[in-house]
Write a structure and sequence with these properties.
The complex is a heterodimer of chains A (423) and B (446). With 423 residues, chain A is an alpha/beta fold. Chain A has two domains: 270 residues, Rossmann fold, CATH 3.40.50; 78 residues, no CATH class. Chain A is 35% helix and 13% strand. Chain A has 17 helices and twelve strands. The radius of gyration of chain A is 26 Å and the shape is elongated. Chain B folds into two domains: 282 residues, Crotonobetainyl-coa:carnitine coa-transferase, domain 1 (Rossmann fold, 3-Layer(aba) Sandwich), CATH 3.40.50.10540; 99 residues, formyl-coa transferase, domain 3 (2-Layer Sandwich). Chain B contains 18 helices and twelve strands. In chain B, helix 1 packs across helix 7. The longest helix of chain B has 24 residues. The N and C termini of chain B lie far apart (52 Å). The chains are: A alpha/beta (423), B alpha/beta (446). At the A-B interface, helix 2, helix 6, helix 7, helix 8 and strand 6 of A face helix 2, helix 6, helix 7, strand 6 and helix 8 of B. Strand 12 of chain A pairs antiparallel with strand 6 of chain B.
């Protein structure tokens, strides 16, 4: 980092990460906020390096775009934790750390003599978080999982799907994007940060046992409250909230084939008038300028006509961008349903300097990455480097900083020959 | 491991005070967790505007909705105190600033710049408390040309790309059946607050953290964005999104949730009800072989076309039909236990009733714990998804009744005398003049 630039909010914090797809996002959250996150991978690299998409669609441990995204700003070393030299080097590394984030199967690290009790003995300020599918206890503790499996058991799928009229006999749908892993990482981050704040007062670390299943089960808004407080179960509806009772649709198709989300229930007479005047400027107000619509009861009684005839027809004759900005300019909380690639051209994101050009010196180029959910005024979020290549920082971290001799490093990283490349 | 901490163990944020101007869902979901972690959260609200209290859809059946009996409000606002204060009066604003002076964190999720228009912008807050950590959670953030755009969860999801990424190919977007970005936007509010607090404790400096709900959604589409910025791949393409599959047959591109494998789908289970579904995925040939064995080695599954990952991906329709003919004979929990006992990835699709009543893991971990509410009675609330070895993080109280803690905060903390306190109820500072006082407010004044 340039000396003139202010440091991120987690500057000075050292995190050791032993994590696959379950936990790597939590490490990224800390790394981009300024923590020195050292990712410890097995010889040959994490399994998560085998997850696509890949650069030019060519599978390669150093070319997984998924791995690139979830491992920005980290340094990477390889250690064979199953051999004594690797475990010893790992302990030396953990002795320098504030946080250990791990997502191995419950019991795995303790079986190598690297459980919380073992590590606390060498670093009593350590905050260790195990972020695992079901936590460290319970009948499902050792069950295997995936993003899809978590979205099923967590309740996401029971809430997502289609109206019968749109897709007859549709299955429950698990939204794409890896959001079970995201959800677990968000709560793990909260647990870790709470323990770190407490440590600023007490000086003592502690163990955080985080469950992705529980995190997902918490993330369905009012579905659990509907059941607990009323005994209601929800049904799935296209592009809008699950509900115990059918609700008016909110997703409409535009002239350009894209869709918009337009919440049109609860219209008051002034809102309806504003809407009708906008539609009338395109000759599409139908009868909505009629004085009878200046009465809330009349609006309610004619919701079906207003929504399914007039508004749907108006939107069908407009482009999605016109609807999105035209509605927001008039105080309606609507949006077009945008695709990820459309966002690169969003001027609002540009105004907030959201996108980050990240150098990939190994490829002699730079690529555009998404930025931060928040602007941290005074201590900026930033991507300090692209994701590490396999074993990229073995020499820098293990030899130069930790003081391992070349031979010790070779033993610990589980490779013969050049320890900077463990493949 | 994880021995449970002793019941009297401290909470991690003990001694931290949060002034909470948030409302509806995203902001209140943020401060709920700070409360569970031990912070003293003072929810500043006004009865005419907190829509979160007006959600009769979760009021217990047979009870007339009031400001105090929304179940979803109670769960969303657990672990907080409630203070009614009209910040748009001079006296209310002055008291708000006095509360800032004794707080560590201020959080709000109004539309952009509303709080600064009221005279409670970051610079003003710093005059009251130099090292305040101020988290704003507007839909589009406080800066940028569309900062004034408004959001609900579903609208932020649509604008961020998340809605598009959910559904079946060739069908309209299925989107998200709830305000995922109220839940997750809320978590980012809590994450920002904790990050700012940690920085304050280590550097002595406060700051303004400007979170955007919509942009939070954009950050959750990373691999899809890189597939475009690096590979030039269009987001809108044949076979994407691929429903519950990792890849749609006949296409070659990835989805963005993990390895590209088949089977990877939802299947109906016995007895065929609305939520009688399970999901199954096999991440290797060996796992597929194990599933075949569990299905009783049916002839169809022995076909050569299913022997390799590539073949299974290409022939998913037949593969999924075959698997479902088996899953339809089993209950979703029995199927889960059978598959998992043999290392095959399977879990049930669970409704809310399933999670609260039938999920053995959530029951064992104590996810839903009953708490008594003074008006509604005793109901279960959702607990934290992590345990701390040396600290407590379970819920301490249900959502507060409106203005329930006016005397605790305004008299106990700020030291208002009885006369001033009573005057505020009569001049529209602590309660609207148009609304009758609630019984517990009368009690505070006697």
């Amino acid at each position: 980092m340039n000396d003139a630039e202010p440091a991120g909010p987690l500057d000075g914090l050292r995190v050791i990460e032993v994590a696959g797809e379950q936990g790597q996002f939590c490490g990224k959250l800390m790394a981009d906020l300024g923590a020195d996150v050292i990712k410890v991978e097995p010889p040959g690299g994490e399994d998560a390096r085998a997850i696509g998409p890949f650069l030019a669609d060519e599978p390669d441990p150093d070319k997984s775009l998924s791995f690139w995204h979830y491992n920005t700003s980290k340094r990477g070393v390889t250690l064979d934790l199953e051999c004594a030299d690797g475990a010893i080097a790992f302990k030396r590394l953990v002795a320098t750390a504030d946080v250990l984030l791990e997502s191995r199967a419950p019991g795995h690290l303790p079986s190598l003599g690297l459980g919380y009790e073992d590590l606390r003995a060498i670093n009593d300020g350590l905050v260790m978080c195990s972020l695992t599918p079901f936590g460290q206890t319970g009948p499902w503790r050792d069950y295997v999982s995936s993003d899809l499996l978590h979205l099923a058991a967590g309740g996401q799928m029971a809430s997502c799907g289609y109206d019968e009229a749109d897709v007859p006999d549709a299955p429950p749908i698990a939204p794409d994007g890896g959001n079970a892993w995201h959800t677990g990482a968000h709560f793990a981050y909260i647990g870790i940060m709470a323990a770190l704040v407490q440590r600023t007062i007490t000086g003592a670390g502690q163990y955080v046992d985080a469950s992705i299943h529980e995190a997902c089960a918490l993330t369905t808004e009012s579905a659990v409250a509907s059941y607990v407080f009323r005994g209601d179960e929800v049904t799935r509806q296209t592009g809008r909230h699950h509900s115990p009772r059918p609700t008016p649709r909110t997703q409409f198709r535009c002239r350009d084939g894209k869709y918009v989300n337009a919440i049109v229930w609860g219209l008051t007479p002034p809102m309806l008038r504003r809407l009708a005047e906008w539609m009338d400027s395109h000759g599409l107000a139908d009868d909505l300028l009629d004085g009878r619509y200046q009465d809330t009861k009349f609006i309610r009684a004619n919701t079906d006509h207003i929504v399914n005839d007039v508004i749907a027809n108006f939107i069908a004759n407009m482009d999605s961008d016109e609807i999105y900005h035209g509605a927001q300019d008039r105080g309606f909380t609507w949006s077009s349903i945008r695709t990820p690639d459309e966002l690169l051209d969003d001027p609002h994101l540009a105004d907030r300097e959201f996108w980050v050009d990240v150098p990939h010196p190994e490829l002699g180029t730079r690529y555009t990455y998404p930025g931060s959910a928040a602007i941290y005024n005074g201590s900026p979020w930033q991507i300090s480097r692209r994701a590490p290549l396999v074993g990229e920082h073995n020499v820098e971290v293990l030899r130069d900083e930790l003081g391992l001799a070349d031979e010790e490093m070779r033993q610990a990283t589980g490779v013969q020959g050049n320890p900077t490349s463990s493949r | 491991m994880t021995s449970q901490p002793a019941a009297q163990a401290p909470r991690p944020l003990e001694g931290i005070r949060v002034l909470d101007f948030s409302w509806v869902r995203a902001g209140p979901w943020a401060t709920r967790w700070l409360g569970a972690l031990g912070a003293e959260v003072m929810k500043v609200e006004w009865p005419e505007t907190e829509r979160g209290r007006r959600t009769p859809g979760t009021t217990p059946k047979g009870v007339d909705p009031t400001l105090n009996n929304s179940g979803n409000f109670s769960d969303t606002n657990a672990n907080k105190l409630s203070v009614t204060l009209n910040v748009r009066t001079a006296r209310g604003l002055d008291l708000a600033k006095r509360l800032v002076a004794v707080s560590d964190i201020v959080i709000e999720n109004f539309s952009s710049r509303v709080l600064s228009d009221w005279g409670l912008g970051y610079d003003e807050l710093c005059k009251a408390k130099a090292d305040i950590v101020y988290v704003s959670m507007a839909g589009y953030g406080q800066t940028g040309r569309h900062h004034a755009y408004k959001t609900f969860g579903p609208v932020a999801q649509a604008a961020s790309g998340l809605t598009f990424m959910s559904g079946l190919p060739g069908a309209p977007p299925a989107g998200w059946g709830w305000s995922y970005l109220d839940d997750t936007g809320g978590l980012y509010g809590a994450m920002c607050a904790l990050t700012g607090l940690y920085r304050r404790n280590t550097t002595g400096k406060g700051q303004h953290i400007d979170q955007s709900q919509m942009i939070t959604g954009v950050t959750l589409t990373g691999p899809a964005l890189l597939d475009h910025t690096v590979n030039g791949r269009a987001s809108h393409r044949e076979g994407y999104p691929a429903g519950n599959r990792a890849q749609w047959p006949g296409t070659t591109s990835n989805s963005y949730r993990g390895p590209t494998v088949a089977p990877h789908n939802a299947y109906r289970t016995d007895p065929g009800g609305y939520n009688d579904w399970c999901v199954i995925a096999c991440f290797s040939d060996a796992e597929w072989d194990e599933l075949r064995r569990l299905m009783g080695d049916p002839d169809w599954a022995a076909a050569e076309k299913f022997a390799t990952q590539a073949g299974r991906l290409q022939n998913q329709d037949a593969l999924d039909d075959g698997i479902e003919s088996w899953t339809l004979t089993l209950d979703k929990y029995a199927l889960t236990d059978l598959c998992q006992a043999h290392g095959v990835h399977a879990l049930p699709v669970q409704s809310s009733a399933d999670r609260v009543d039938n999920d053995p893991q959530l029951r064992d971990r104590g996810m839903y714990q009953p708490l008594a509410h003074p008006e509604m009675g005793t109901f279960k609330l959702q607990n934290a998804p992590f345990r701390l070895s040396a600290s407590q993080v379970d819920n301490t109280r249900p959502g507060p009744m409106i203005g329930e803690h006016n005397n605790t905060v305004l008299q106990g903390l700020l030291g208002l005398d009885d006369e001033t306190f009573a005057a505020g109820f009569n001049d529209g500072t602590f309660w609207p003049e148009s609304m009758p006082l609630l019984p517990y407010m009368e009690d505070m004044l006697t």
